[in-house]
Amino acid sequence: MFADRLKIARGKWLHKISSLLDDSRAGRWGFVSPLCMLILLIIGIGAIYSALSYYGSRQWHAQVMWAILGAIIYFAAAKIDYAVWYNQAHWIYYCSVLLLLLLWSPFGERRFGAVRWIKICGIAIQPSEPAKIGFLIMLAAMMARTEITTFLNSIKNLAKFFLVFCIPAVLVFSQPDLGSALVFPVVFFAMLYVSNLSKKFFACILATALVLAAAVVFDICAYRNFLDKKHLNDEIVMEKYEDRSLIPLRDYQRDRIVSFIFPSAVDPNGVGISWNLRQSLIAVGTGGLSGKGFGNGTQAKLGYLPKSVAANDFVFSVIAEERGFVGALVVILSYILIIWNGLRTANCARDRFGTYLCVGISMLFLVHICINIGMTIGLMPITGIPLPFLSYGGSFLLICCFSNGIIQSVHRYRNNFT
To answer: Which residue intervals of 146-250 are DSSP H helices?
Structure first.
């Protein structure tokens, strides 16, 4: 009797899996995005190997395994009709929030003064990465179910959207992880922008953002005066400015902003908080047109660019030094094609859910790319945010592959297969 029930249950599960993977209703595959993804993965693995080869590190082996697993996840997500995520959006969101809450449990692991990882069965996971895609899918599903008209008529629904946005954003900011927290508002408002909301709403949001930016600028100027009065730098200040400020920033985050605007205020000798940026600029600047050649870079290999950041946050610097302007241009063009493909797919999606997904994922990639590359060349303050498909790490790489697979699924299941 039990054996018969087991066979029936197994048959049902096999039927569900086969129905998920049945792509008889799907159109042709798009090859622009996966080709660019493959190019970036190869460049990234080479950069990680080169950056850490002097130390005998084998992290590039792990990155190869993550890349293979990511490719499997990509093709699985591409074959599954993206409507599955519409039906399971709330469970995906709940699981991603639960992972964030586990940071404050015994599973949470503190690294470099922040609790951003959980360790389960010996595997370290960064919950902020699945939280981004979980929030994105949930928001896209809610927006697709809701008829958005004017701002006044949509206040109740906008309040629900805002709650879905706030929960993971606040949890990520509390780790603290300012870089990842910045991703959420950009994705949130980009997805709202493609809805039918009045432009007056976004004008009010822009005005609010300007007020908040002015408050942060005022706080940073006050922090600089605080340092000047004490005649101390960021390494030996005993009194914490964060205890007296109403702006919820840590002092080390203020140091990064101040070192970007007023380098001499916190690191006049360039050997403290601005060290990584200076070495990154040297790496990018000495790369020239064609670079120093694979494995011939000096900034990361000789430790000037610390190994703790060379393979992840500053991997673009390694590529620019060894591959030069040409290699950096290949990377940037690959990203442009991936984002262009995502927005093009959003335009031909069969429903609003597919459109919101593609816009959200494209903006997710765009924010990571602009912040990461911007900080390595001195256009933005230093913040720990990885570069899609290039930076070392499994959590973010798998999420990037999964997200790109969703865009491929939207492309394949669009209305017009021509």
So the answer is: 155-173, 178-181, 183-193, 199-230
